Every structure is written in structure tokens, then in C-alpha cells.
Amino acid sequence: MKSTPKINKTWLMAGVAAVVVLGGAGLYAMIRSPSEAPAVQGEAGHSEAEGEHAEGEEVGGEEGVIFLTAAQITAANIAIVPVTGGGGGETRLSGRVEPMIDARAVVAASVGGRVERMLVAPGQSVRAGQPLAILVSGDAASLRADADAAEANAIAAEQAHSREESLADQGVVARRDAEVAHAQALSAQAAARAARARASAAGSPNASGRLSVTSPISGVVTSVQVGPGGFAAQGGVIAEVTNPARVEIVFNAPPALAAQVRAGSAVSVQGPAGEFDAVVTGVAAGAGAESGATVIRARPTGGVLPPAGSAVSGSIVTGEAIGGFTVPSEAVQTVEGANVVFVRTAEGFRVAPVLVGRQAGGRTEILSGLTGAERIAGANAFLLKAELAKGEAEHGH
């Protein structure tokens, strides 16, 4: 690679970079830094003299270095991205947007009973724990009565144990009688806990057998299966609730891909509204019930997924190289016939020659030239390449 041209320390990059699109044609404007901006009227003579001095003088220029402040980088919309591990080939997949496993709840009656009131209707938003219906159940009343009776027995057994302990301390009864009373109190307490648990599982009914059927998730009521006055059998469906925000991408992949994709792998997804990035959250080999295909689940790294049922396609990097690195493809620029990236420094950027490998999913494999700890220019890195070319042309004068 040829040596990178020297860049004057007073770099011509502005604090502001603007892209104006008019009638299909792009117009790029770069404003010079304040140190090189034309002087105000009345100081033209000084400005020309200073400009001639600056043009004819090399003020400590460093090879392959571009000086920029953080404010100038932000104004030019130059993204700073890390170098990530990986590398490999590209595999195209097809899939759909589907509800997550916890995004849909079929709410059933835990005990049989009459529907006294329905508190929701289809299309209504509900939160987790919100009542959907009120049931009146004889079975639930029995469970509550059993819990109350068991609690009373536990209290009585504990009181009997206290009396036996007191009498044993006074020598009136044998110590064995106090120990028997203690065991009976422990047994009564265990029976009371079991009765309370059964009543709680039934919906914590009151003494009249009334209980609320609640939603286990937040979402939207999609259907109601019963109405006031109807009877809900034990296990019968009361309503269905779906959370439309809890969706994910599910790809069906060849079985061999299960060994090449892991959780955390990057996926470039093309949906109805355009392209977006996603990350693999799970890989299940042979999960396809009929075909035995590998199921790959993914979620977007930003933005909102299309509605459930939308068809999507994905591009995933497979066969990743251990110890390799990848960068966004737009970060790699060609300078004097060689591939380079612009590494962020305290003063701005420096040019780093790199050896590139394969490209997949909008990323380029870096075989050498980086350690992996660098932060580089990603989006709009071409602006830095353009400034390098401008600096070389002015240096030639």
C-alpha cells in the first residue's frame, strides 16, 4: 500500500455536514472550520496574507491522521462502532413473525361454577392480575370452608400444646404427653397450610364461594367464551388474552445449520417495511414437527417488528471463524487501491490498512490489521475518505 497522504492539522472538515436531496440529485456541502473560514469584511487583506502563509507552510502534519473534535464528528453524523468477533459465510432463510410462547394466555376456570359477571370484552386491554370474570362456585365454597376449619384446628392444637407444656413443667403430666401434643400441633399446622394452598389455587374464594378469574399476562382480550349466567366447567376456557408486542421472528432452517448458528449471532432481516437487524435468541435442532428442520428464533436489536403472521427473510452469518473480526461493510473504504478503516483516536481518526475477507449480512470479515479493541468510523466513513483525497490534492499544490 502506498503511504497515506499527509493531512494539514487544520482539517477542512466543518462542524456541520449536510446532505440535501433535490429532484433526485444529491448535494453535499462541507463548511470549513472557523480557523479557515473567510474573514469578515474589512479584514480581507489580513485574511489573504494568513491564507498564503498557511498554504505554503507545513504545520506539523502527521501521515494518515485526521483531526476532528467530538462535536464535529457528531455534526457530520459519523457513527463510531466497535469491532466485533466473528466472520463466515452467508445463509439465506425464510420465516415469519410469530407470538412468543408467553404472549398468549388461555384463561380457564380452576373450579366449576356459574358466571356471575363478565368484566371484559373482546378488544379490551388488560394488565396482569386484572379480573376477567366473577364466578360463584359451590366447590370453591367447600375449599374455603376446609381452609377455615383447618386453620381453626391448627390454633386449637397449638393451644393444647401450650397447656401440656405448662403442666409438664409443673410436674402434673408426663413430659411424653407434652411431646405428643407438640406433634399434633405440627400436624394440624401442615394440614392448614395444605388447605390454604388448595383454596388459593382455586382463586382464593370468599366464604360464599365467589372468586375472580384473572389474566396472567398483560395484553388485549381476543375472545370471550362465556357470558353472565352461563356455567364454566373446571378447566373450561373463560377468555383468551394476547400481547401483540410480544412477538419474535421464527426461521425454519436446514438441520445442518443447527451446528453453525448460536444464540447471539447477528441476522439481517428483510420485512414488509424494509431491512432491520436482529439477534438470534435460540436454536432448536429438529424442532420442526414434520420436517425435522432447525428452528431459529430471533428478536430485533432496535425498532418494532411487523405484526404477527408477517413473512420475512433473513441473512445470517454461518461458519464463523474463531478469533476473526467483522465490521460494518460501510466502514471499509478504498484509499489508493488498498482497503482501510478509520480508527477513532483522541484527536480524531487514523487510517488503518486492513486485509478483508468474506462479506455477509452487511458486514465484512477482517483477516488482519485490527486487534479487536478499536472503535472505528462506521456510517458516513466515506466523508473521511473524501477529506483524505482533498488533503492530498491540496498538499500537491
Automatic annotation (TrEMBL):
Segments crossing the lipid bilayer: 12-31
Whether Cell membrane counts among this entry's keywords is: no
Instruction: Report keywords, A-Z.
Output: Membrane, Transmembrane, Transmembrane helix, Transport
Gene Ontology MF term list? transition metal ion binding; transmembrane transporter activity
What PANTHER family does UniProt report for this protein, alphabetically?
CATION EFFLUX SYSTEM PROTEIN CUSB, SLR6042 PROTEIN
Which ranges carry the CusB-like barrel-sandwich hybrid domain? Answer: 105-241
Region Disordered, annotated ranges: 39-59
| Record field: compositional bias (Basic and acidic residues) | 45-56
Which named protein is this? Answer: Cobalt-zinc-cadmium efflux system membrane fusion protein
Species this protein is from? Brevundimonas halotolerans
Q: Which residues form the CzcB-like C-terminal circularly permuted SH3-like domain?
A: 326-385
Alphabetical list of InterPro entries matching this protein: BSH_CusB, CzcB_C, MFP_Cation_Efflux, RND_pump_MFP
**Source organism's superkingdom?**
Bacteria
